[in-house]
Automatic annotation (TrEMBL):
<dbReference type="GO" id="GO:0030313">
    <property type="term" value="C:cell envelope"/>
</dbReference>
<dbReference type="InterPro" id="IPR028082">
    <property type="entry name" value="Peripla_BP_I"/>
</dbReference>
<feature type="region of interest" description="Disordered">
    <location>
        <begin position="28"/>
        <end position="49"/>
    </location>
</feature>
<dbReference type="Pfam" id="PF13407">
    <property type="entry name" value="Peripla_BP_4"/>
</dbReference>
<dbReference type="InterPro" id="IPR006311">
    <property type="entry name" value="TAT_signal"/>
</dbReference>
<protein>
    <submittedName>
        <fullName>Solute binding protein</fullName>
    </submittedName>
</protein>
<feature type="domain" description="Periplasmic binding protein">
    <location>
        <begin position="53"/>
        <end position="308"/>
    </location>
</feature>
<dbReference type="GO" id="GO:0030246">
    <property type="term" value="F:carbohydrate binding"/>
</dbReference>
<feature type="signal peptide">
    <location>
        <begin position="1"/>
        <end position="24"/>
    </location>
</feature>
<keyword id="KW-0732">Signal</keyword>
<comment type="similarity">
    <text>Belongs to the bacterial solute-binding protein 2 family.</text>
</comment>
<dbReference type="InterPro" id="IPR025997">
    <property type="entry name" value="SBP_2_dom"/>
</dbReference>
Amino acid sequence: MPQFTSRRGLLFGAAAVSAGAVLTACTSNESDDEPAANDQPAADDKPGKAVTIGFAGPQADHGWLNAINDNAKNRAEKYSDVTLEITEGSNDTAAQIGQIETLINKKVDVLVVLPADGKALTQVGLKAMRAGIPVINLDRIFNSPQAYRCWIGGDNYGMGLNAGTYIGEKLKDKPDARVIELAGLDNLELTQQRTQGFDDALKNYPNIKKVARQAAEFTVESGQAKMAQLLQAQSKFDALWNHDDDQGVGALRAIEQAGRDDFLMVGGAGALSAFQAIKQDDGVLKATVLYPPTMAASAIDLARALGQAKGVSGLAEFEIPASLTLYSAVVDKENVDQYMSTGFK
């Protein structure tokens, strides 16, 4: 999952299925007969000035990160006036800085950057901006607002808040309800933000007590190992919030191996496997809270708009906003079909 992000900016209430479409009515070249699905730009515009967008992301060693790359590539392919220059991606900051400098030297029109480390890559963001290349900073935020023209990303605090509220509403009539939390990497600020949001939501439900928390590492293996520990330590609880659907695959394996089905589980991010399990509704996983990778598609839309000196349809301003925080919608059996096409593998 993303290494560093912020709640700064507008609370932009675009659900994952429309995270791109809301932003793109001013930038599409599709006909009015085309559906405004996740991979389909909204219809309202004709091809314009040709724009070359440089895209630099981290190594796709996680389902969410791979989905970020796929969303960017697929969105760019929808536009006949967009050329996407994409780097190989790296979790090594020096390597990623070198890749971005190559894009700067190629004189791309706009840069979209999801930095492996926002702090470490701030200087190269500043370099691009000073070279006259506007930067869309995707999710992991640079230290200086001068290093980007627009930031777009997820709401980690909102993930925890919405997960806690969902669980709270399910357990509000249960006396002495007990919940546990399977967090991500504790050295990441995003993990702390998610936990804080979760704890703040539970304050509204005095009958609910969080009795255990274990940090995993956003991997299937760590999810399975840490969940097994939680299950062994907690013989009785009513709900589990797992921060990440990738590690949730492992958590569900541990739950199945332990033969437990006496609680409800809420996941995080929006993996296809989670959506499928929620729809099937024959296990403990009842919902997941989105951290939509469709933000990468929206970043391409915003980059195209910048390159063509356009604003965002639906807003009165001539310019695109300085920041957009996407909404962490809760997906359960009632609305899972709406989001199924956005699920990542």
